[in-house]
Design goal:
This protein is an alpha+beta fold. It contains 26 helices and 11 strands. A hairpin with a 2-residue loop joins strand 9 and strand 10. The two termini are 30 Å apart. Bound molecules: zinc ion (ZN).
Length: 683
């Protein structure tokens, strides 16, 4: 259900340009529109803060706009994409398309989201049938039935269930249960003592929850009491939930059990009938991620009153759909989730928000149109070739490792050879024919789409795994490694850069930007602290000799220590929780650099705009992280995300790479200098 290996969840990056054509065209004048040269801030010494040296020029000219919590190259590309999608939607709206067609669905969805007259008039009315179901709950059995129902329309309940590949048998889909139920993004927000966490939980208890309850019809006193109980309920679960770093061990978070064992963990829930009501058919075995959470859930069924529970569920319904309701609901969701958590100063224009929602719910419909217009077979082929260049260079790196035994190496070659690249867009598209979209209410369109996705997931149970499936759309500025399929998924949008044509990017930049920061990053995820525990077929199974595992872990620990030493706004980076991403970044850089050394540009060694090929490689990598975050967004990221902040993902791993010191003449005494014995080398 959750994608554990997605990169760049907060700041997204795009990939540059021509892989083959750039080196063919030797007469090309790359200096004219040099995407890296024009962003430099030469008042900063590269050895003091490379990120700011590389990107500072752009950052000075591009402050974060009020409606954003961060602003960078990914956002600029995103803006271009929204303009394209707006055109597609506006045309769909006036197309008089056949009922049930994809064109009708996107046009009507867009219409319903922009129909603010109807939205304001309806207020909370569209949710009334759901709220009255909650009012009718009489006992624990009714309550659990309501969990099941709400689950099918995308409302969070304490039972966080989903169908996914069995980690130990990747060809089989299984029902899986996770910890969940809480309203704040992470269990730590209920306990941490840093100012950011305290501000957030204080606002949540004293402002956000009371406002939501008052808007949904409670008096001020009732709202205040309901807020306290809801917070206590969530805090109780948070206390039995695992921390981010404790979710990394795939064995500890894999507890396969028959329903009878689940019944012993949480005896007050009739699991068989609950799963049936959720739409999960014929379940006899489940994989429970965090059993102690389900023990706590069972306890909370008895220690909190039915009245407390009803209030908790009302809040979940109203906040789930608040952004699609009238202004007071929408404003409060934005105030808390946009401003308090991430520091946004104002809302995005409505049309952009509606498009973002549509993109989230029917992304593949838009994606089909997107790739037809913007991603040719020729472009796809270029990036497929770049993947192979990285694969062969990674193999050479493994061959040269002095810490890995020959036996483990042989298995590593096999796993690497079997990494499946998915480049650009899926071979077949998801079928939206059972989704009904009309001209409103907007919130009910969203609810039906949530239900569509729930059914889509639930129907996988008992069917063979579809290994051709994509978990993100081609227009997404992100990429991921899925260990169960041993695959890297690289959407088309990764290959767009604003204001620069394919042919204007030289190989150095492309290898830093695309090969190192994305392709190599994802490929090495298959061999990071988590990924290495899965074999070539995607099964959780030990294939390393124990002594090789020890040596790997020692090297990873050096990187954990390095990142534990970084902090911002008084918050320390969690080296352990971010290790997988940091291992992947460092691996992507060193493999990308050696792949680049095979190109003509490197061999010829001619500078462009005074920058050597190797300097341009490092600058190309840094371009992928061009951008900045607001204090609130960065603080929330450090507490909730397994990715370190973008600037640290440039400056951190670079200090481990000898060629970086050489290329920029970095000496002892420069801020980025670290002693050679402290530099980490894994791949
Ligand atoms: Zn990653």
């Amino acid at each position: 259900m959750t994608k554990k290996f997605v990169i760049k969840a907060i700041i997204v990056s795009t990939i540059g340009m021509s892989v083959i054509s750039a080196c063919k065209d030797k007469a090309k004048n790359y200096a004219a529109n040099d995407v890296i040269y024009k962003d430099l801030d030469t008042s900063v010494k590269p050895g003091d803060d490379f990120f700011r040296y590389a990107n500072g020029g752009w950052l000075k000219k591009n402050p974060i706009p009020p409606a954003y919590s961060s602003w960078g190259i990914g956002n600029v590309v995103d803006e271009e994409l929204r303009d394209r999608l707006k055109k597609i939607n506006t045309e769909a709206l006036s197309a008089k398309a056949e009922k049930g067609s994809n064109t009708q669905k996107i046009g009507d969805f867009y219409f319903s989201g922009l129909d603010t007259v109807a939205i304001e008039k309806e207020g909370l009315d569209p949710l009334k049938p759901e709220l009255s179901k909650i009012d009718n709950i009489k006992d624990v059995n009714d309550l659990v039935d309501e969990f099941a129902h709400l689950h099918t329309i995308g409302v969070e309940t304490p039972i966080a269930a989903g169908v996914g590949q069995d980690a130990k048998n990747s060809g089989k889909n299984m029902l899986q249960l996770y910890q969940g139920g809480i309203g704040l993004p992470n269990r730590d927000f209920y306990f941490n003592t840093d100012p950011h966490s305290v501000t957030i939980r204080t606002d949540y208890q004293e402002k956000h929850l009371p406002i939501v309850y008052k808007l949904s019809g409670l008096s001020a006193d009732e709202a205040s009491a309901a807020s306290k109980q809801t917070y206590n309920l969530e805090k109780f679960w948070a206390d039995s939930s695992r921390k981010l770093m404790d979710l990394r061990d795939p064995y500890r978070n894999y507890n396969k059990m028959p329903l009878s064992a689940l019944g012993k963990l949480a005896p007050d829930i009739n699991w068989k009938s609950t799963f049936e009501k959720m739409g999960y058919k014929n379940v006899d075995t489940v994989i429970v991620g965090q059993p102690e959470y389900y023990r706590a859930l069972n306890k909370s069924l008895k220690t909190f009153t039915i009245a407390d529970w009803k209030n908790y569920l009302r809040k979940n319904v109203v906040t789930s759909f608040g952004s699609y309701l009238s202004k007071p609901f929408d404003d409060e969701n934005f105030r808390f989730f946009g401003t308090v958590l991430y520091g946004n100063k104002e809302q995005l224009p409505r049309w952009k928000r509606v498009l973002d929602t549509e993109n989230g719910l029917m992304g593949e419909v838009l994606g089909q149109i997107f790739v037809k217009e913007y991603f040719s077979e020729q472009t796809k082929e270029r990036y497929v070739n770049l993947v192979e260049a990285m694969r062969s260079t990674f193999k050479e790196h493994i061959q040269k490792l002095d810490w890995m035994s020959e036996q483990t190496k042989q298995k590593a070659y096999d796993k690497l050879a079997k990494v499946v690249p998915k480049v650009g867009y899926p071979d077949h598209w998801k079928d939206f024919s059972t989704l009904t979209i009309d001209r409103g209410p907007y919130s009910l369109n969203v609810m039906r789409a949530n239900n569509f996705w729930h059914r889509y997931n639930a129907e996988k149970l008992g069917k063979p795994v579809d290994r051709t499936e994509w978990d993100i759309t081609p227009q997404t500025y992100n990429a991921y490694y899925n260990p169960s399929n041993n695959e890297i998924v690289l959407p088309a949008a990764q290959f767009l850069v604003p204001g620069v044509k394919d042919e204007d990017m030289d190989d150095a930049v492309v290898y830093g930007y695309a090969a190192a920061s994305t392709i190599g990053h994802e490929m090495t995820h298959g061999f990071d602290d988590q990924g290495r525990q899965f074999d070539a077929k995607g099964n959780l199974k030990e294939w390393w000799l124990p002594e090789d595992s020890v040596k790997f872990t020692q090297r990873a620990q050096m990187l954990i220590n390095q990142f534990n030493g970084y902090s911002i706004y008084g918050l320390h980076v969690n080296g352990k929780a971010t290790q997988g991403e940091n291992i992947a970044d460092l691996g992507g850089i060193v493999i990308g650099l050696d792949a680049f050394k095979k190109t003509d540009e490197y061999k010829e060694g001619k500078p462009i705009n005074g920058l050597t090929p190797v300097q341009r490689f490092f600058l190309g990598y840094a371009l992928g992280w061009l951008g900045e975050d607001r204090k609130e967004a960065l603080s929330s990221q450090i507490l909730t995300n397994e990715h370190a902040p973008g600037f640290m993902r440039v400056n951190g791993p670079f200090t481990d790479v000898p060629e970086f010191y050489e290329a920029f003449h970095i000496k002892k005494g420069d801020k980025m200098w670290i002693n050679p014995d402290k530099r980490v080398k894994i791949w």
